[in-house]
């Protein structure tokens, strides 16, 4: 009886039911089978309690900021500017796409939104220069995941709320790993293009005057970086307050540059409501299913199993990360965080690991799942927009995933790459 809910969750997801409803339905049925009164009690109180958290307002505010910036056309400006600087290198357009994904991460925090936007901007340009579609779609699919590390990351916000870890410090902690991943991906693309030029022909070269002139497009991003990251790092604002400042500054920039119309403003609000509703629905569903796991005792059994294993601490950490990798093949990143953190986080703290460091590792693992079969969301987004078969997108992502795993290994060996920058912050 205890595993019925777990079985139903797997069945519903295999049948294609949206993850929020799969979690809610499977959890509710499991609770009713155990105790009808407990089931009704959970269903009548959980929806409100799951989302009645002031810190959660950070999510729609950052989403709104991304909508304003996207509709103002700054993403295309970033791509054009980076292309002028690195487009003439082997794999230059691919490197430019990765750099733009990283910069867009500062404007969105959403991996899927970044992948969708870059699919429309970069893939046609790489097609025009004769890039192999397997390589170009793989670059964009995985490039979008950088937004999961670069602040403002929605994944890190969810992690902070679930574990009661400082969201401000988590966002700052993602900067160095995000930059490191961006550099290693760029290097990987360069080496791949160098060894196989037919897959990534060299792009056009631009004059120094054109390169310097293109930097004028970066001013908007610099302002947003100063407003969002600067306000958090200086202690001037909390993560939630910086999100509000970022959304306000983005709207103001759009109106001042006459790139954001009233229609765009309205559509940004509607799109933000839709995305926020989806995320909050997943939170409610995961909370209901989490109660089911707790009542059945499966949660406690899992924690006990890990903490009593006769293996070194690093062995348990690797096992936990491997579980996240496998779950990423089948589930949405937000759902994974909401379901697993109540189980894995106490174990990690018991082992003496830093919660901020572990947060970065977890986000990297679930982001990898966004480009891996069978349910890699980013891969399907890129495939849908580019009209490239999904298996080719998955093939193109393999090389990028290997580079990401190398980056993760470096972070495991050198945890100070994550913990140093947030340790310098005062006041949060």
Describe this protein's structure.
With 428 residues, the protein is mostly helical. The chain is built from 22 helices and no strands. Helix 1 packs antiparallel against helix 2, helix 10 packs across helix 22 and helix 11 crosses helix 21. The protein starts with a helix and ends in a 5-residue tail after the last helix. 50% of the residues are buried.
Attribute tags:
single chain; mainly alpha; 77% helix
Summarize the structure.
This protein has 428 residues and is mostly helical. It contains 22 helices and no strands. 77% of the residues lie in helices and 0% in strands.
Q: How many beta-strand segments? A: 0
- The dominant shape is globular
Structural class label: mainly alpha
Query: pLDDT below 50 for ≥5 consecutive residues: which ranges?
Result: none
Helix-residue proportion: over 70%
Number of helices: 22
Please report which band the strand proportion falls in: under 5%, 5-15%, 15-25%, 25-35%, 35-45% or over 45%: under 5%
């Amino acid at each position: 009886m205890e595993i019925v809910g777990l079985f139903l969750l797997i069945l519903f997801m295999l049948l294609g039911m949206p993850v929020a409803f799969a979690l809610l339905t499977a959890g509710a049925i499991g609770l009713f089978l155990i105790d009808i009164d407990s089931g009704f009690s959970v269903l009548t109180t959980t929806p409100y309690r799951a989302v009645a958290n002031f810190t959660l307002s950070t999510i729609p505010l950052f989403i709104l900021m991304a909508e304003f910036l996207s509709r103002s056309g700054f993403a295309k400006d970033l791509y054009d500017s980076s292309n002028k600087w690195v487009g003439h290198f082997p794999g230059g357009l691919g490197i430019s796409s990765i750099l733009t994904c990283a910069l867009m991460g500062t404007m969105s925090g959403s991996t899927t939104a970044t992948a969708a936007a870059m699919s429309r901007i970069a893939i046609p340009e790489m097609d025009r220069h004769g890039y192999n579609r397997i390589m170009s779609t793989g670059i964009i699919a995985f490039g979008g995941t950088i937004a999961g590390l670069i602040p403002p990351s929605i994944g890190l916000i969810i992690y902070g709320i679930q574990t009661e870890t400082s969201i401000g410090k988590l966002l700052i902690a993602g900067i160095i790993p995000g930059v490191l991943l961006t550099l290693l991906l760029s290097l990987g693309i360069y080496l791949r293009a160098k060894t196989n030029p037919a897959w990534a022909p060299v792009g056009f070269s631009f004059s120094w005057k054109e390169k310097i002139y293109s930097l004028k497009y970066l001013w908007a991003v610099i302002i947003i970086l100063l407003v969002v990251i600067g306000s958090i790092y200086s202690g001037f604002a909390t993560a939630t307050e910086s999100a509000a400042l970022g959304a306000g500054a983005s709207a103001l920039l759009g109106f001042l540059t006459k790139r954001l119309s009233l229609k765009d403003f309205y559509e940004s609000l509607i799109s933000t409501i839709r995305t926020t509703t989806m995320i909050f629905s997943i939170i409610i569903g995961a909370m209901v299913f989490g109660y089911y796991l707790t009542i059945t005792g499966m949660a406690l059994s899992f924690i006990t199993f890990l903490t009593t294993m006769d293996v070194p601490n690093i062995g348990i950490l690797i096992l936990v990360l491997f579980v996240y990798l496998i779950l990423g093949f089948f589930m949405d990143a937000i759902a994974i965080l909401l379901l697993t953190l109540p189980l894995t986080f106490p174990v990690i703290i018991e082992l003496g690991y830093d919660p901020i460091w572990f947060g970065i590792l977890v986000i990297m693992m679930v982001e990898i799942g966004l480009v891996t079969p069978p349910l890699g969301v980013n891969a399907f987004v890129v495939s849908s927009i580019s009209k490239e078969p999904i298996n080719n997108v998955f093939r193109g992502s393999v090389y990028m995933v290997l580079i990401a795993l190398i980056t993760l290994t470096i972070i495991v060996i050198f945890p100070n790459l994550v913990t140093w920058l947030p340790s310098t912050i005062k006041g949060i």
